Amino acid sequence: xxxxxxxxxxxxxxxxxxxxxxxxxxxxxxxxxxxxxxxxxxxxxxxxxxxxxxxxxxxxxxxxxxxxxxxxxxxxxxxxxxxxxxxxxxxxxxxxxxxxxxxxxxxxxxxxxxxxxxxxxxxxxxxxxxxxxxxxxxxxxxxxxxxxxxxxxxxxxxxxxxxxxxxxxxxxxxxxxxxxxxxxxxxxxxxxxxxxxxxxxxxxxxxxxxxxxxxxxxxxxxxxxxxxxxx
Length: 231
Ligand SMILES: CCCCCCCCCCCC(=O)SCCNC(=O)CCNC(=O)[C@H](O)C(C)(C)COP(=O)(O)OP(=O)(O)OC[C@H]1O[C@@H](n2cnc3c(N)ncnc32)[C@H](O)[C@@H]1OP(=O)(O)O
Description:
This protein is of the alpha+beta class. It has one domain (36-72, 96-228): Hotdog Thioesterase (Thiol Ester Dehydrase, Chain A, Roll), CATH 3.10.129. Helix content is 22%, strand content 30%. The protein has five helices and nine strands. The protein has helices at residues 22-26, 47-59, 80-83, 138-157, 220-228; strands at 6-9, 15-18, 65-68, 106-113, 118-125, 160-169, 179-189, 192-201, 207-217. The strands form two sheets. A seven-stranded antiparallel sheet has the order 3-4-5-7-8-9-6. A two-stranded antiparallel ribbon has the order 1-2. The longest helix is centred in the middle third of the chain and has 20 residues, at 138-157. The chain is globular. Mean pLDDT is 85; it is low at 1-20. Bound molecules: dodecyl-COA.
């Protein structure tokens, strides 16, 4: 099994996909399948979100930044050619894409800068993410941070999992506002990837959260055990 993932067989004989988002992230900017790409503007996006999106899209023109497509099923993040060889599990969804109503859940788009080892996420939390009245639930903030940092870790080290995520919640995030989640890989030591992240308002005047994380690159033995346990 290469660092990009692939297909293997469970002890029960069922074909399983060793999911590795790195393929999708490395191919950022290109549509790999026919499924809907949710990391594109929709009617729920505020003007702030659209302006920021257009600003980042401009930055993709010289190739330094790439937009990361976003599908609701993890298997859509791998190339078409591999899809024919396994059964797609339609009953699962990526957590961030679990709410159908436009604008109600996680509205987001991520941009990758490989040379800076950085992923920036534009995030507009919807009304179903409420914690305290009018504000995003801390779990939703942790989710978007984990996913942004995670995408950054995947771009650096391939198949990884979160081992530690530490968040300081500094200022609440109003529902419907737009925040920038800016993550970067600070250090790689063997299988360990250390990352940091800031969540800030669009004008940069409000720090909403700061985080550090440790992601561990999976070794083959560990990956096989995890596949076996998902029978
Ligand atoms: C495009 C689509 C986008 C879509 C969005 C995609 C983004 C998805 C991101 C979501 C990510 C997740 O939610 S992941 C889900 C949440 N995380 C999990 O469920 C992980 C559960 N934990 C595990 O499976 C395991 O503990 C691992 C894989 C993390 C590590 O296990 P392992 O591989 O056996 O490694 P192990 O030998 O224990 O440790 C290796 C080294 O790391 C150190 N280490 C291990 N854990 C820790 C720790 N918590 N804090 C400090 N250090 C640690 C060890 O001391 C050791 O150091 P030394 O002795 O070598 O020095």
